[in-house]
């Protein structure tokens, strides 16, 4: 037991270097008695983090990247020298007799330090216990033996890779106290719960330590990141091209390789103060000539565009652009920014419809508070693939399907509000009564439950009604189906706004898709449908010179075409528990009902390792996210397979084996350019987003 007396703050602390047990007395009074008052602080840190690693050998070799290890310290590129043994000993000498433990870390696995053995030994010689966290990629029997002799505990980062299990087992077999560091996020919380419930972590570990990480954005947030792969612009001497999250950005010549800055994705909207301070808005100088930046002063939205033949897919700004809004010295790679010190830096851009005559009808707020269908779940927002590569792991079953550009709709056979039962007291007190629910069909948009099909963003939801009726009598109790409606409204207007292709600024694009993009998906605005007139019975009908007798006659009336494609199905019980249908079963149910599903491009299991044809050594571990992205980009571009007259929107990558719906979208650049052009037309904003804004669920 190591004992330390803190004379300044008047308490005694004890630490057992073998078990890790720590105890601290209360504040000692002038008579030497424990007052029971907890000491507020210590004169010297009892545990200190020491960053001894300046670079990462695994990152430099590419092994981390291929194994799915995501380094928050940019160990992939940074090549700073490790701390010298001499400097480390100076730190230990300063801590001797005052510090119980040193947590060793830095940019890379501590066990790969050239003086790893000497570092551990010197700590113990001075009665300080060393601990560290490692990926376990480079573990050897010698390293494990050093851990057993000198370390209090060793933590292994949980990467679901073979080397993870191997390292944990080597430590356990040697009798080393072993912890697991597990990063919690939206993409890992379900796995964590499952493993805890089912004892899914390796037997014998000391503890699982859950760590939090900062999420990355979806267009409403800016991301502190480094610009990568900097190169000269092909047609502009004063510009450079780089990459952020796999997206090409155009920057000035003063941008440095691997520079830390702020990335604003497409569909983000800059705050006014930030945009003005950095002169990003279009304006005119005193002579009336264009000056400033390229952003619309009112909209301030980031768009995908081509600048002299090069793609611009987002905006990259130096950290200095945030001076005056925050202390930029405190910003770190991976930080997410929306509001700083009360000032909006970035938010999601939602276009507003000007001079709108749309009557918002179906789905507006009810006068009472009882929902039409309390178990009618909304579809979750689909996040961007590029920002969520870490969600994919080896062994995941993945499906890649077409992402369609239409309006979302959902229909369920669920308990629905049929009326109210009034007691005598309800009648006397003029109360609405108790709601009565019974099984029935209910339909809605992405956010809004439609209690009727009048009004809405399109003026009428008649086209929605015809598709919802397809499911009547076909859904089982508790089933909800989610689908994308494409084509034209009953007024012959395209469901999703059209676009002038010449504004894209790409002759080849115009040559392939014509001068105008209409997201028709094989539908026609001037369609017709057959109807029968039952009023005509036993009538003699004249057609030209011929006549015949019929019980009824077939007539034709205008019927603008629309269609729908199912992408998700669920089963909900009366307690509100939701079971996600596997895509295979969803397609089976759709076949039974005679409806179509979104086209399937690929279905595969992410491997642990892959052997490339030119490999000469052992197979390399797979970076799961990059593996999925590479496959997705075989399908996310080009003409839409249903409506070949227009470009496809992109693809959706779904992880099939997750208990909840888990999918990520990957849009192609040409579509994002079109999308930006459409949103610039005030009379034709994004209909999906505008409807959500105008309607109240």
Topology:
Blueprint: E1 2-6, E2 11-15, E3 22-24, E4 47-53, H1 57-61, H2 63-67, H3 85-95, E5 101-106, H4 116-125, E6 129-134, H5 141-150, E7 154-157, H6 162-173, E8 178-184, H7 189-197, E9 207-212, E10 222-226, E11 228-232, E12 239-244, E13 247-252, E14 260-264, E15 268-270, H8 272-277, E16 282-284, E17 290-292, E18 304-307, E19 310-313, E20 315-318, E21 336-337, E22 339-340, E23 343-344, E24 346-348, E25 383-384, E26 397-403, E27 407-421, H9 424-428, E28 434-444, E29 449-450, H10 462-468, E30 479-487, E31 499-500, H11 507-513, E32 516-517, E33 528-533, E34 539-543, E35 546-550, E36 553-558, E37 562-572, E38 578-580, H12 583-593, E39 600-605, E40 609-610, E41 620-621, H13 624-632, E42 650-655, E43 663-667, H14 669-680, H15 687-694
Helix pairs in contact: 3-4, 4-5
Strand order of the largest sheet: 4-5-6-7-8-9
Q: How many helical elements?
A: 15
Which structural class is indicated by helix and strand composition? alpha+beta
Total separate domains:
5
In CATH, the homologous superfamily of the largest domain goes by the name: DNA ligase/mRNA capping enzyme
CATH class of the largest domain: Alpha Beta
From the alpha carbons, calculate the radius of gyration and give it in angstroms.
32 Å
- The coarse silhouette is globular
Number of strands: 43
Q: What name does CATH use for the topology of the largest domain? A: D-amino Acid Aminotransferase, Chain A, domain 1
Give the name of the CATH architecture of the largest domain.
Answer: 2-Layer Sandwich
Work out the strand percent. 25-35%
Low-confidence spans: 214-219, 355-369, 536-544, 690-697
User: In whole angstroms, how far apart are the ends?
Assistant: 63 Å
> Helix coverage percent of residues?
10-25%
């Amino acid at each position: 037991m190591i004992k330390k007396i803190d004379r300044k703050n008047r308490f005694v602390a004890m630490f057992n270097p073998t078990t890790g047990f720590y105890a601290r007395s209360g504040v000692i009074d002038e008579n030497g008695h424990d007052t029971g008052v907890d000491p507020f602080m210590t004169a010297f840190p009892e545990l200190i983090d020491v960053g001894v690693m300046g670079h990462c050998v695994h990152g430099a070799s590419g092994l981390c990247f291929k194994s799915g290890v995501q380094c928050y310290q940019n160990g992939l590129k940074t090549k700073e020298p490790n701390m010298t043994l001499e400097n480390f000993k100076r730190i230990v000498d300063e801590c001797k007799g005052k510090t119980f433990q040193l947590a060793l870390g830095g940019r890379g696995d501590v066990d790969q330090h050239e003086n790893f053995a000497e570092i551990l030994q010197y700590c113990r010689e001075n009665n300080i216990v060393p601990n560290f966290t490692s990926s376990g990629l480079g573990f050897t029997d010698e390293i494990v033996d050093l851990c057993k002799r000198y370390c209090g505990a060793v933590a292994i980062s949980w990467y679901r890779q073979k080397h993870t299990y191997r390292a944990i087992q080597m430590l356990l077999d040697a009798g080393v106290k072993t912890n697991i560091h597990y990063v919690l996020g939206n993409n890992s919380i379900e796995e964590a719960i499952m493993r805890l419930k089912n004892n899914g972590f390796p037997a014998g570990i000391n503890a699982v330590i859950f760590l939090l990480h900062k999420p990355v954005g979806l267009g409403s947030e800016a991301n502190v990141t480094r610009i990568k792969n900097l190169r000269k612009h092909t047609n502009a001497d004063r510009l450079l091209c780089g990459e952020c999250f796999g997206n090409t950005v155009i920057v000035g010549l003063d941008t440095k390789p691997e520079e830390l800055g702020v990335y604003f994705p497409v569909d983000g909207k800059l705050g006014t103060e930030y945009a003005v301070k950095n002169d990003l808005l279009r304006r005119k100088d005193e002579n009336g000539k264009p000056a400033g930046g390229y952003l619309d002063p009112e909209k301030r939205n980031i768009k995908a565009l081509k600048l002299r033949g090069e793609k611009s897919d987002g905006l990259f700004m130096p950290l200095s652009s945030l001076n005056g809004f925050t202390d930029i010295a405190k910003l770190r790679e991976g930080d997410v920014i929306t509001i700083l010190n009360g000032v909006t830096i970035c938010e999601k851009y939602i276009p507003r419809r000007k001079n709108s005559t749309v009557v918002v009808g179906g789905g507006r707020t009810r006068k009472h508070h009882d929902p039409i269908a309390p178990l009618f779940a909304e579809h979750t927002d689909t996040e961007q693939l590029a920002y969520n590569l870490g969600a994919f792991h080896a062994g995941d079953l993945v499906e890649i399907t077409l992402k369609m550009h239409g309006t979302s709709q959902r229909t369920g056979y669920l308990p629905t509000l049929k009326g109210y039962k009034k007691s005598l007291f309800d009648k006397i007190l003029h109360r609405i009564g108790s709601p009565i629910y019974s099984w029935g069909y209910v339909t809605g948009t992405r956010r809004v439950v439609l209690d009727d099909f009048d009004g809405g963003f399109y003026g009428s939801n008649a086209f929605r009604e015809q598709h919802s009726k397809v499911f009547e009598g076909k859904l089982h109790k508790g089933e909800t189906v989610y689908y994308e409606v494409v084509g034209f409204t009953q007024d012959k207007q395209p469901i999703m706004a059209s676009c002038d292709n010449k504004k894209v600024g790409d002759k080849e694009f115009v040559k392939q898709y014509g001068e105008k993009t209409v997201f028709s998906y094989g539908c026609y605005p001037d369609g017709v449908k057959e109807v029968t007139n039952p009023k005509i019975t036993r009538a003699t009908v004249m057609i030209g010179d011929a006549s015949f007798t019929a019980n009824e006659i077939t007539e034709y009336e205008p019927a603008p075409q629309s269609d729908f494609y199912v992408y998700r199905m669920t089963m909900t019980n009366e307690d509100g528990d939701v079971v996600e249908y596997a895509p295979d079963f969803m397609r089976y149910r759709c076949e039974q009902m005679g409806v179509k599903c979104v086209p399937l491009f690929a279905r595969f299991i992410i491997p642990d390792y892959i052997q490339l044809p030119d490999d000469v050594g052992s197979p390399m571990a797979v970076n799961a996210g990059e593996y999925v992205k590479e496959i997705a980009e075989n399908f996310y571009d080009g003409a839409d397979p249903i409506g070949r007259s227009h470009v496809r929107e992109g693809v959706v990558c779904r992880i099939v084996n997750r208990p909840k719906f888990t999918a990520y979208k990957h849009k192609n650049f040409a579509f994002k350019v079109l999308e930006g052009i459409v949103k610039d037309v005030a009379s034709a904003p994004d209909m999906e987003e505008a409807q959500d804004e105008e309607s109240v669920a």
